Amino acid sequence: MIHINTIEEWRALAAQLRSSGQTVGLVPTMGALHEGHGSLIRRAVDDGAVPIVTIFVNPRQFNDASDLAAYPRDEAPDLANCEAWGAAAVVTPSVHEMWPTTPTATTVSVTGVTERFEGAGRPGHFDGVASVVTKLFAINGPARAYFGEKDFQQLAMVRRLNDDLSLGMTIVGCPIVRDEDGLALSSRNVLLDAEGRHVALGFSRGLREATEQPRSAGDVRAVVRASLESSGIDVAYAEVVDPLSLEPVTPEYAGTARVLLAGVVQGVRLIDNGDVTIVSSEGE
Ligand code: AMP
């Protein structure tokens, strides 16, 4: 496995792979890697792509300086894990390498899918993500790019960004990897103690309760919110949305939808989401 720090070396590697007929499988991450990240790398391998993992804690997507300072970083185990999961190369650029001239004058902004939910709770977050993802895609060149459904709104935004700007990537969304107890794997989970972890299980319990019997959108919203609150999660949002537009579904809606959840546990903002089949509330 190759370890690269500079944009120049990465661009040259990607170009060389492309010219030899290989497809890069780009896996953008912020490090503190776990099996969720591993699933993206393994999926790239299964697809016959050459996995290039980027590890970059992008300051531009943090609206809260203390959140950025607390974000876990541990390069040595990350590199060992990437190798074990089958990465061909890992790119760990410095902040200066990625954003040499600050404040950066160029911002990429995707409207529509970004305004609610994480966008409302974290001003500037999605502009930071869209800007860095555009830069990663521009450096690497056309490739497959792997993103987790864990960050469902981010995935929707990246798909839109790629389509609108014809960036030439094939965006692959991968299912959420969970611990045995149901907690969605997240780099932020290490910031929770045993009690916080127990509280955070309210997310997966809420999703389970939402799907255990057919319910209307309103019922799902109420059941999930009650589950989160009774667990002790400080709820940011609990909404039932159209999986493509991320617009909240109408009370009459029937069919597949996505439940999006966010809340704070021990000062740590956590998100989760899952599929749900909605029955119409008409006639209730
Ligand atoms: P992050 O390092 O948190 O920015 O995440 C990097 C990529 O890994 C994103 O595409 C995430 O959606 C994805 N990811 C993070 N956690 C999980 C998980 N539990 N299951 C699947 N993908 C994940």
CATH superfamily of the largest domain: HUPs
Indicate the CATH class of the largest domain.
Answer: Alpha Beta
Q: Ranges with pLDDT <50 over ≥5 residues?
A: none
Q: What general outline do the C-alpha atoms trace?
A: globular
Biggest beta sheet attributes: 6 strands, parallel
The ordered H/E elements are: EHEHEHHEHHHEHEHHEEE
Number of strands: 9
CATH topology of the largest domain: Rossmann fold
What is the CA-atom radius of gyration, in angstroms?
19 Å
Helix/strand class: alpha/beta
**Number of alpha- plus pi-helical segments:** 10
Distance between the termini: 59 Å
Ligands bound here? adenosine monophosphate
Q: Determine the strand fraction and express it as a percent band.
A: 15-25%
Helix fraction bin? 25-40%
> What is the number of independent domains?
2
Strand order of the largest sheet: 1-4-3-2-5-6
Average pLDDT metric: 96
CATH architecture field of the largest domain: 3-Layer(aba) Sandwich
Describe the 3D structure.
The chain is an alpha/beta fold and 284 residues long. The chain has helices at 7-19, 35-46, 65-70, 75-85, 95-98, 118-121, 125-140, 152-164, 194-211, 217-231, and strands at residues 2-4, 24-29, 50-55, 89-91, 144-148, 170-174, 234-241, 255-265, 268-278. Strand 5 (144-148), helix 8 (152-164) and strand 6 (170-174) form a beta-alpha-beta unit. The termini are far apart. Bound molecules: adenosine monophosphate (AMP). Residues 29-30, 36-37, 39-40, 147-148, 150-151, 174, 176-177, 184-187 line the site of adenosine monophosphate.
